[in-house]
Amino acid sequence: MLSHIRSLALVFRHLFRKNITIQYPEEKARLSPRYRGRIILSRDPDGGERCVGCQLCAVVCPVDCIALQAAEDENGRRFPEFFRINFSRCIYCGLCEDACPTYAIQLTPDVEMAEYDRPNLVYEKEDLLISGEGKYPGYNYYKVAGLSIGGKDKGEAENESPPINPKDLMP
Amino acid sequence: MSPTFQNILIAALILFCMLNMAALMIWIERRLLALMQDRLGPNRAGPFGLLVILADMIKIFTKEDWIPPFSDKVVFVLAPAIIMATTLLSFAVIPFAPGIQVIDLNIGLLYVLAMSSIGIYSIVLAGWASNSKYSLLGGLRMSAQMFSYEVFMGLSLLGVVAMAGTFNLREIVDSQQRLWFVVPQFLGFVIFMIAGLAETHRLPADMPEAESELIAGYHAEYSGMKFGMFFVGEYVGVILISSLMVVLFFGGWHGPFLPPLVWFALKLGAFLFFFILCRAAMPRPRYDQFMALGWKVLLPLSLLNVLVTGAIILANT
Amino acid sequence: MINLFYIAALVAIIATVLAITRHHAVHALLYLIVSLLAVALVFFTLGAPFVAALEVIIYAGAILVLFLFVMMMLNLGQDAKEQEREWQPLRIWIGPALLSCILLALIIHAIMGEGSASVVTEEVGPKAVGSLLFGPYMIAAELGAFLLMAGVVGASHLRRREFQSEITGKEES
Hints:
CATH architecture of the domain at 28-138 in chain A: 2-Layer Sandwich
Radius of gyration of chain A: 25 Å
Strand content of chain A: 5-15%
Number of helices of chain A: 5
Helix content of chain B: 55-70%
Keywords (chain A): 4Fe-4S, Cell membrane, Iron, Iron-sulfur, Membrane, Metal-binding, NAD, Quinone, Repeat, Translocase, Ubiquinone
Oligomer: heterotrimer
Number of helices of chain B: 11
Organism (chain A): Rubritalea profundi
Order of helices and strands of chain A: HEHEEHEEHH
Number of domains of chain B: 1
CATH class of the domain at 28-138 in chain A: Alpha Beta
Largest sheet of chain A: 3 strands, antiparallel
Number of strands of chain B: 0
Catalytic activity (chain A): a quinone + NADH + 5 H(+)(in) = a quinol + NAD(+) + 4 H(+)(out)
Helix content of chain A: 10-25%
CATH topology of the domain at 28-138 in chain A: Alpha-Beta Plaits
Shape of chain A: elongated
Cofactor (chain A): [4Fe-4S] cluster
Largest sheet of chain B: none
Distance between the termini of chain B: 45 Å
EC number (chain A): 7.1.1.-
Order of helices and strands of chain B: HHHHHHHHHHH
């Protein structure tokens, strides 16, 4: 009996507490920078696409919402010919971000992507690509990898020594 | 203005006010519940979200009114009408202010009790006519619950009746000019309040429609306006019980400075608020515990109340 | 008032006849409720509002709810309806019909003999009923109370034995 009266009093006091409701369209909830929202494709510091079309994200995606086709330019630099994410299927698990070897695919704290037509939720490469570097500024995959492409030979990458000639006996 | 015409006018006015208040209660309850739970509640449609009532109405009126093919159709349609009719008829004897009363019945209190006991049928028949297990269980619970608590409701009021010496509600109000009956009849008031909760089957006593165990209990098969009748009927019932509490225990329209009708409205509002507070604060008890509370605690207490009140009155005369 | 009385009486009679002849148990009960309400109205028009209210509260509001409660538990279906139909062939109506005809004749005779039967319009309030019950009819009221008490004690006793055997049964196993 006493506990009932106490709970009545407690609930009555809550009448004058501050409401925790966030009036959404006018004021927005704070999302952490690591929030898993809309997926983007980021670029190099030089402005080139980071994605090398390795398909790892498409493979790891549990709902198979990523589709892409790799291609190669005249310099031997790989890039996706098309890159399509069907956001009506995406579950925002972030596995693609984990799988990406070049930090190209990233999730952003943006959730406002409602559409009236479902086909509008299929994002193409031009919708996904941003002009910035996302969460990893200064990272350039081709500057780090040992691969030789047009304009950069083997051994010219960062922290890389020139290749050793195995036929040479000199130390 | 002829007295008959005046009577009809008052009756129509009371009916209009009560139905509107019941509709308004939907909004008040949602807002207050939200505030008590540190939320905001419906505040978008119109000023303070008041138009949410209109939206609810449009929804309920335009919804498909489905009568299940497996139901007993006549009884199914009849059931929601009973609860509205009985609760609205009960308002005929409530004295809102001097002169604002439809009929000054000699046995007003018994009339209200009779109407509420007829009101049971609405829910029992709804549960039975739906011909589904959850509805039937809800109906069974309801019949047992209301039937039991009606006993204590009547008994808890006997103290008031004995002190006022009449069943006439207007005279009961008049006899509270000096002292509200809540002071000498506090036990009766508490019992009446619990019985009122059970009678209006509001949370925490909403076992007949407990959504977590019986889906929606007796109105699980109802939709559209028939569900709306149950919905509004519940609020009309809450207003009825609150106004009865005001009339029987809190001196009706009596109060200093303000006009009688304002006093009545203020007291009524306080009780409506209390009903909502109860809903927000109390958990739903187990059904057998609730029935045990009734028969093992409230019944002896109310009998004791009648006995002591009678003894004191006898000693004083 | 006298018109009200006749209308209510007519409703009561029709509802009662329908209650007897319905094959569906719950529908029959509903007609019985209507009949009781009509009887309450008859009491009211005869100047006994207290009895009318009690009729509604106790008979229509409490006892018949229990009837309905049991009916709902039984879940009577089509079989029960057919059985009911078998139990009510036309010839079993002859006896009751004859008896009620005699009663009707008696009533008509009584009314004719009295001349114009006057409906008592004097209102009997709750106070009068109470002082009658606890005055001249004290013994009847007390006996009724004893009977009800015996019922309560009996029900409680039956339930108690059952309950105890349940408990002991559990303890043994």
